[in-house]
TrEMBL record:
This is Carboxyltransferase domain-containing protein. Signal peptide: none annotated. Residues 2-208 form the Carboxyltransferase domain. Transmembrane segments: none annotated. One of its GO terms (molecular function) is hydrolase activity. It comes from marine sediment metagenome. The lineage of its organism: unclassified sequences, metagenomes, ecological metagenomes. The keyword Transmembrane helix does not apply. Keywords: ATP-binding, Hydrolase, Nucleotide-binding. The keyword Metal-binding does not apply.
Amino acid sequence: MKGGEVLQFRKRQAGLRAYVAIQGGFDVPRVLGSRSTFVRGRIGTALRKEEMLRVCTFDSEVPKNVLTLPQEYRPDFNRADPIRLLMGPQEDYFTSQGIATLFNSTYRIDPRSDRQAFLTEGPAIEIAKGPDIITDPIAPGAIQVPGDGKPIILLRDAQVTGGYAKIAIVARVDMDRLGQMMPGDEIRFQRISRHTAIDLLMEEKHRLDKLRELLR
């Protein structure tokens, strides 16, 4: 782009979020090695109308070739496949019926959801030991079940600890697809093993390695 040109997004076609790569990156303070904004954590602020962001200087040449992502490497965010899960560290806090409910039901993403977590509407999950645990670490993708039995799916801006039992965790290979879902979307879950989750992740890594070679 040249100075004064305008980049405009049209109607959304697939997924909730779009990404723009800026050579050199934006000139904003680094926090823990990242220039990302995390409004809930008071790191940076949300963009305001007509706000200007400065770009960092860079030494490398601006690429002269225009590269287009091959169709077979473009993610399909409209596909309705289940989100794949591994069982969580507090699986024994839930009845067998509660676990069956999770995998046999359809949930809807609540409009109150944000980058921290998806709240869901759907059948309540039966709890055997009560929802509360001694606070322990949480990873993005963990699925907590509070007292009302409605799953909470933690996303990239998740807190680092929590006190609700975790029935399952999203397979890493499905986290990006999950993050592109919108409030109102329906979501189903599929149980997989740890070995299957690793195999899927390695397949995705090989696919991205091939893509990097194509774009060189």
